Amino acid sequence: EESRVLICSVCKAGNQPGSGIESHFRRRHGAKGAVLQRIWERAATAPATAGGLADPQTAETPADGTSPVPEL
């Protein structure tokens, strides 16, 4: 099963789905215009096969005992 939590590759923060993605990249990293649009489009299409993005505050950990990803 794919991970469904969006993690910022710059600061490693978990991002809330929806407007939380835009807010994070706009406020924390100063993204705007075409850059912000590309981030938004990528976030919208990445989890399409996994059922959508999960909230990092409430996302369940894998039941199969999979270890956390060290970089996260």
TrEMBL record:
<feature type="region of interest" description="Disordered">
    <location>
        <begin position="47"/>
        <end position="72"/>
    </location>
</feature>
<protein>
    <submittedName>
        <fullName>Uncharacterized protein</fullName>
    </submittedName>
</protein>
